[in-house]
Every structure is written in structure tokens, then in C-alpha cells.
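Recap from last week: sequence in, structure out.
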Amino acid sequence: NNAVRASAVIIEVDAPWTDANNTTAITVGSSTDTDLLFKASDIDLTSAGQYRSDFHYIWPSSSTVQLVAEVTQGTASAGTARVSVEIETEGSIQPTDYGLVTDNGSI
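Predicted C-alpha cells:
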């Protein structure tokens, strides 16, 4: 009974998001449930640091899943964050770095 598991989502806020409000958010999930793995309430984008969600979710290996990270700018005018998702397949952890998320007012 093979499966694929998202074992953790880590978001590192490198630079606090200037003027972020309650609609400024980063969420991580699947294409059908965009905050399945990381909810907006799991992070404070106005404070630099590492935020982690250990919400383990398992998909059957026969599933095709598209993971998505969504950024909602709200009133933020600047800030950076990095999103990583740890995926476990056949007993091994494979961190996946989806790159730098930057809000420079152009989102």
C-alpha cells in the first residue's frame, strides 16, 4: 500500500512584510484545497522567522496531486519569504524548495 506524504511545510520570512494587514497571507495546499497544508493563520508575515506546519497529509501513490503556494498581498508593500515542502515517498524525506517569494509591490 504505497502512499505519498507531505510531512511538513516550512516558510521562512527573511524580511518582514511592510504594511501587511489581516488579508496578507501565504497558504500552501493542493489545487483543490489551497490551504490544506499551511493556513494563513500559521504565520505572522510582519515578523521575521521560521514558521512550520507539521500537518501530515497522505495521498495514495496512484493520485496525481498538484501542490500550490498562494500569496495574497493585502496591503503589504515589501517583504520576502521562502517556502519549502517536505515530501516523503517510499520512506525517504525529500525537501523541495519552491524558491523565494518576494513582494516588492508588483504582485
